[in-house]
Amino acid sequence: MATVTITIEGKQVEAEHNSTLLSVFKDHDILVNQICGGQGMCASCHFFVVDGVDSLTQPTTQEQMTLQFTKIDRPGARLACQSRAIGDGIVIELPIGTFVESERDLETKIGRKADKTLIHPMTGEVLVEAGKLVLRSALEKMKESSSKFADYLSKR
Asked: Are 60 and 85 a contacting pair, CB within 8 Å?
């Protein structure tokens, strides 16, 4: 079977032609969330294409809808579960930070500085930048985003 070369965070890896980036991440022990189980319904497996966008399949309709809903404010965002590697030269970066496990997890951090950027687990939205104080407003922002995301999913 044909392989392609992908650079992830500066490390080159080989992957089977037409494999999803999610499977590539798993095969190379790169931790990535997949809250929806790889259905393209959340943005927890998102990554950023730095180079080689033409070496990936075009975004699926599902991926486009999900990315339109999310609040990821960096260009080149794609979903690993929906993107397939079809050529060499793909260079990608992963989101910097950590996904918040739950509202309760975020609540325990209120009043302390975030040691890493805190990211909403489903939408990919930055809740608190690294080094900033975690405020109750971040929890409210997370609840609001979770509620909107649940509404979005229920209408599909």
From this structure: no
**Residue 119: half-sphere exposure toward Cβ, Cα within 13 Å:** 25
> In the chain, how many domains are there?
2
Query: 72: domain CATH number?
Result: 3.10.20.30
Distance CA 32, CA 156 (A): 24
Which residue, of 49, 67, 93, is where some domain finishes? 93
Residues pairing with 14 in the sheet: 5
The per-type count for the chain, helices as H runs and strands as E runs, is 4, 8
Q: Count how many Cα atoms sit within 13 Å of the Cα of residue 154 in the half-sphere of its side chain.
A: 6
Q: Which structural domain, as residue segments, surrounds residue 110?
A: 98-154
Question: 105: burial class by Cβ within 10 Å (0-12, 13-18, 19+)?
Answer: middle
Nearest to 20 by CA among 84, 78, 115, 66: 84
SS3 116: coil
pTM: 0.80
pLDDT tens per residue, range 35-88: 888 889 888 899 999 999 999 999 999 999 888 888 787 899 999 999 999 999
